TrEMBL record:
<dbReference type="Pfam" id="PF04101">
    <property type="entry name" value="Glyco_tran_28_C"/>
</dbReference>
<dbReference type="InterPro" id="IPR007235">
    <property type="entry name" value="Glyco_trans_28_C"/>
</dbReference>
<dbReference type="GO" id="GO:0009247">
    <property type="term" value="P:glycolipid biosynthetic process"/>
</dbReference>
<dbReference type="InterPro" id="IPR009695">
    <property type="entry name" value="Diacylglyc_glucosyltr_N"/>
</dbReference>
<dbReference type="InterPro" id="IPR050519">
    <property type="entry name" value="Glycosyltransf_28_UgtP"/>
</dbReference>
<comment type="similarity">
    <text>Belongs to the glycosyltransferase 28 family.</text>
</comment>
<protein>
    <submittedName>
        <fullName>UDP-N-acetylglucosamine--LPS N-acetylglucosamine transferase</fullName>
    </submittedName>
</protein>
<dbReference type="GO" id="GO:0016758">
    <property type="term" value="F:hexosyltransferase activity"/>
</dbReference>
<dbReference type="Pfam" id="PF06925">
    <property type="entry name" value="MGDG_synth"/>
</dbReference>
<keyword id="KW-0328">Glycosyltransferase</keyword>
<dbReference type="GO" id="GO:0016020">
    <property type="term" value="C:membrane"/>
</dbReference>
<feature type="domain" description="Glycosyl transferase family 28 C-terminal">
    <location>
        <begin position="214"/>
        <end position="352"/>
    </location>
</feature>
<keyword id="KW-0808">Transferase</keyword>
<feature type="domain" description="Diacylglycerol glucosyltransferase N-terminal">
    <location>
        <begin position="26"/>
        <end position="190"/>
    </location>
</feature>
Amino acid sequence: MVVKRKVSSLRKKRILLLSEGFGKGHTQAAHALSVDLRQHSSEIITRVIELGAFLHPTLAPWVFSAYRRTVTSQPKLYGMLYRNQYKKSLNRMAGLVLHRIFYAQTKAVIKQLKPDIIVCTHPFPSIIVSRLKRAGLSVPLFTVITDYDVHGTWIDPAVDKYLVSTPAVRERLLKHGVPETHVEVTGIPVHPNFRRQHNKEQIRNEFGLKPMPTVMVMGGGWGVFKKEELLTYIATWSEKVQLLICLGTNEKARHQLLEEEVFRHPNVHLIGFTREINKLMDVSDLLITKPGGMTCTEAMAKGIPMLFYSAIPGQEEKNCEYFQEQGYGQMITSMEMIDHWFKLLLEQYPELLKRRSDIRSNQKFCAQDCSSAIIQYLKLSDKRPYIQSSTKTPIIQWY
């Protein structure tokens, strides 16, 4: 049972969460934190905004599409750019571009909503709000780093507090000159549903699944369907292992897979868009996925061992290193590794269940720690003056 914490205030505290649509993990983290904050206190209201899509709904899809194409078709180029800028903040030219595109409109959004605190789960909105703070904005800024490493673009002296995944990320920030008091290790926020255990029999009935060893495959158009050989090999195990292949909104991939007989086997389930990944994880014994920070954190909360493929050079490689070091997963280096894990499912299932229990019990940070850090800051900041609002009627509403 969630205990509601009262945050004393003359009105409800307003928390504005800003993200960007470069991959889904950043916005998932923002929504997860939003839900958790509202569950913790009835005196809090939240609003999640993907800044680019909200301010520039025509331009943003083109930008996100170009990013996606670069990451999937030119991963080495992306990795080179990532490493070249690894220890640097955003360069002057890129900063000016963000300033021209977002500065005035973001300022107007903040004026209308009058948040008590702004939380950013992507470096771009964090950069923009930091610039506004240097120009006089008095709203506290928290930045949640949603990977298991920190790139230089996250770092700005105007950030009041960083909420990070591990002590190692904290140490990297300190080496960059961030004061100790400005960094708190909280883990990455996940939706409360990923911290709950659901009835497996009910889930199997709901999705038409069998009570047999089950492997979940995630990645959508971002990777696994570019690795046709890998996916086809996994599907050859369908006589002995139940497969849940999560496609999201990728209908093109669904049609392509259904053209092959191996993917029409009754033990192969092609899952479209669903908000119940948390339930499917409960009935899965192994997850095959790209090592995105959010997906891996959700799987870790459920205690599922992971196999990784096609790590994007940069943050996903660092995520992969972390989860391998912690014993939560392995990078797929050969088809023999898939054979090894699938045989474990069939021959040493109790051992795999113990591994799952160990993953859950060995987690050092609770995802609720992010919410607690923000709520604690709000309690300490009750007397902070609000920024002045425009006299015009707001066109943006709180939830």
